[in-house]
Amino acid sequence: MADSVPSASKEPRVPPADRGRTTIADGVVEKIAGLAARDVVGVHAMGSGLARTFGAVRDRVPGGGKSVARGVKAEVGEVQTALDLEIVVDYGVAIADVARAVRENVISAVERMTGLEVVEVNIAVTDVKLPDEEEDEPEPRLQ
User: Fold this and answer.
1) What is the pTM of this model?
2) 10 phi, psi to nearest 5 deg
3) CA 119, CA 78: separation in Å to the nearest integer?
């Protein structure tokens, strides 16, 4: 009788890319969406007035850094995500066109970079920046 050689497992091997799982934090999606929204012409700022005021103060604190996710809230599941954005538009732009462009740019960037399906992007226009309005950022305390 010939020695039998143990045969390799009949089950196909799992490709290396499929061994394990990848999770993407809400904050990662929020940053991607925030940057993509800011790239659209007509978007002056992100967030409500209060969020922008606190953000401007935080930006001046050493180590505080700019928050690119300001005005963005993401809910991330295993394969899908939903986003809520608050934007301030420049006076004179067609708000519906800006919102459409923001939605398209955000969906494209998030899906391309994360592989998640974006099921919805809700946009709240919280303010309009008038040409003669000053910025909401506080005056520097030191000269």
Assistant:
1) 0.74
2) -75, -15
3) 13
What is the distance between the alpha carbons of residues 21 and 15, in angstroms, rounded to a whole number? 13
CB 53 within 8 A of CB 64: no
Question: Within 10 A of 58 (CB to CB), how many other CB atoms are there?
Answer: 14
Average confidence score pLDDT of the chain: 84
Which tokens sit at 16?
């290396």
pLDDT digits (tens, 9 = 90+) for 71-99: 999 999 999 999 999 999 999 999 999 99
Report the distance separating Cα 63 and Cα 7, nearest Å: 60
Q: Quick one: CA dihedral 27, 38, 89, 102, positive or negative?
A: negative
> Could you give the CA distance from residue 121 to residue 137 in angstroms, rounded to a whole number?
28
